[in-house]
Design goal:
The protein has a single domain, classed as Alpha-Beta Barrel (TIM Barrel), CATH 3.20.20.100. It is of the alpha/beta class and about 325 residues long. α1 packs across α2 and α7 crosses α8. About 35% of the residues lie in helices and about 15% in strands. The chain is globular and about 55 Å long. Bound molecules: NADPH dihydro-nicotinamide-adenine-dinucleotide phosphate. The site of NADPH dihydro-nicotinamide-adenine-dinucleotide phosphate has 23 residues, from α9.
Length: about 325
Amino acid sequence: LCFANVPKYQLNDGRRIPALALGTYLGYDKNGAVIPQNNLVRDVILQAIDVGYRHFDTATIYNTEEEIGQAVRIKVAEGAVKREDIFITTKLWNTHHRREDVLKALRESLSKFELNYIDLYLMHWPIGLSEDYSYSDVDYLETWRGLEDAQKLGLVKSIGVSNFNKQQLERLIKEGRVKPAVLQIEIHPQIIQTELVSYAQSQGVVVMGYSPFGSLVMRYGIDFPGPKIDNPTLLEIATKYSKTTPQVVLRWLVDRNIIPIPKTVKYSRLKENINIFDFELTKEEIQKINEFDDETRYTIPSFWQSHRYYPFEKVDNPIPNPFSRS
Ligand code: NDP
C-alpha cells in the first residue's frame, strides 16, 4: 500500500530528513489550540504511515503529540515500521525559553509521545513569553543553549528554529555552538522567501515550508485573495503532468529543495499530497509560480509585534492577543 518513496535530505549534523512532512495543526478556537477529537489525528497518522508518510510535524501548542506518539507506537508494534524509519518534528513553545525550561518542556513532550527521543526539536518562535503570556526578554540565544543541551543528552537528534528572520538566523549561526539543522518558515506561491531560503540553504540549513497551499485553500474559514485551486496558470502546469494544482504547488517547493508540510485529515488527500515524486517542474514553470509572490503571510502574530524579537514587519492594526490570560 506504499504509494511513494519519499527521498531524504542530508542535515548538517549527519542525520537524514524525509523531503515531505505531514502537518498536524488543527487550528485554534477561542480557548487556544483545537484539541483533536475521537482520535482523529491518531487515525490520520496510521493511514499516513500506510501510504508512505514518514515525517510528522507537530508542536507542543498543537495538542497532537499524544496521538502522533500513539499511532507511531501502534505501527512499530505491528512491525509495519521501525521507530528509526519515522521522523518526528515538534516545537518548543514560547513560554519555555529559559535554558533550564527547555529540557522541562521537552521531557513533557516526550512523555506525551511516550517515546524516548524525537528527531527534530524546533524553537517555535524567537519570542519569549512568561507563564502568564506577558513578554519575557529572554534572548533566543539562551533558549538555543537549552536546545543544545537537549541534543547533547540524546533526547532530540537534531535541533533547529522556526519563524526566525534572516538577521536572527545569522546571529544564531554566528553565536550559537551548534548550527541549526533546519529553518521552518511560511512558504507558498504568495510568499516565496527567495532571500531567506537561499541564505539558509547556502549555510547548509534545510528549509521546511509551512502552509504550502497558501491561498489555494480557505484559511480560518476565509477565502483570501490570491491564486485558487482552479488558477489558470497552475491548471495549465497541472494538466501537462496529469497532476492537481495542490500537487503542482507541493512539487514547486520540492524543486526548490524545500520540505513542504501539507496538512490534511482526509485519506484521498493524504494520497494526493504524497504523490509528487514522479515528476519535476521546469525552471520556467518554477519561475511562473514565483511570480505570484506578493509577500502575503497568513501567520501574523501581530499581538506580539512590540516584542523585541518579533521577526516580521509590523502592521498598522495589530489583532488582539488570543492567548491573553487576563
Ligand atoms: P496547508 O497549506 O497545509 O493547508 C491545509 C488546508 O488545506 C486544510 O484545510 C486541508 O483540508 C486543505 N487541503 C490539504 N490538502 C488538500 C488538497 N490536496 N486539496 C485541497 N485542499 C487540501 O496549511 P497549514 O496552515 O495547516 O500548514 C501546514 C502545516 O504546517 C501545519 O499543520 C503545521 O504542521 C505547520 N505550520 C507551522 C507553523 C509554524 O509556526 N512553524 C505555522 C503554521 C503551520 P483537509 O484537512 O480537510 O483536507
